[in-house]
Amino acid sequence: MEMQARAVLRLPWIFFLFLYTCADETANSTQVDDKVTCDRDHEYDSLDIRDVTGKWRAVELYMHLSKEGVKRYETCPKITVWETDEIPHTTTFGPSTENQLYHVQSIMAKFNQQHRHLRLLWDENGHMTEYSLFFRNESAGYWETFDKQNGSLAARPHYQQFTGTVQVLKAVKDHLVLNFCQAASNGAPAQLYSVLFSREPGPMPQWAITAVHNLLQTKNLSIASRRMVCGNGADKPMLSLLFSFMSCVLAYVSLS
Ligand SMILES: *[C@@H]1O[C@H](CO)[C@@H](O)[C@H](O)[C@H]1NC(C)=O
Ligand SMILES: *[C@@H]1O[C@H](CO)[C@@H](O)[C@H](O)[C@H]1NC(C)=O
Ligand SMILES: *[C@@H]1O[C@H](CO)[C@@H](O)[C@H](O)[C@H]1NC(C)=O
Ligand SMILES: *[C@@H]1O[C@H](CO)[C@@H](O)[C@H](O)[C@H]1NC(C)=O
After folding, report:
1. Fewer beta carbons below 10 Å: N end or C end of the chain?
2. C-alpha of residue 215 to centroid of ligand 4, in Å
3. Is residue 23, in this structure, part of any structural domain at all?
4. pLDDT in tens, 46-57
């Protein structure tokens, strides 16, 4: 049942905003594909889902399979996470007899007794994608894909399939780290990346970002390639001006 319930999940910000860089990544990722395994982390098994619901804005995206280095983007993707009782209606079953219909309904009823449903809405400058995920009470920080996602981003032609898992790597009051993992299968390339989100608008303190980098590195998740968004990683204008001025003064002083 779980295999059947898994459907299509994709990552809009990668394939829309970051379409071209991601194409490079997936084109040459075949050699690492075999190595991507999506291990379950048990640290957030007893997560209170209310700690992660609500609105978040992206701070950094870590492209673990890419060698693109550090880049900045002007855009500011936001997500909203909420729990729901509403089950997406699946069109894949298509039972033809009443007996089959009853069978499907009883399987679904059992599934819904054992799982809770979550939605993740990605908003990138008004372009939306809605993810449908599910999890168990005893592993609340481990979310699996339930159904296709919809929205204007998901409808784009280059939108690639993602059928993997989303895991909470860190959930504290003001920030959240999610890891997206999909092992290569049926010709679909492996995908592995993490996203740091913040509750508050504006740049996150550097010490908190550094702590997240350390966390990822202890999990063997490379931070060498990352994409800074929502104004994070931008130079402080006053500080850099002051620095240039001081450098000039120093150069002048040492020359004379
Ligand atoms: C991908 O690999 C091919 C052949 O190995 C190479 O020609 C190409 O430049 C690589 N592309 C990237 C983006 O690294
Ligand atoms: C999860 O736990 C809550 C509280 O303990 C309980 O009310 C709920 O029925 C459980 N849900 C599932 C799907 O096991
Ligand atoms: C996705 O579909 C659901 C159900 O039809 C709808 O309520 C929701 O608004 C859609 N989401 C987006 C982002 O279009
Ligand atoms: C990280 O990678 C190193 C070298 O490949 C390995 O020895 C180590 O066990 C890995 N650690 C984890 C937590 O996977």
Report:
1. C
2. 13
3. no
4. 999 999 999 999
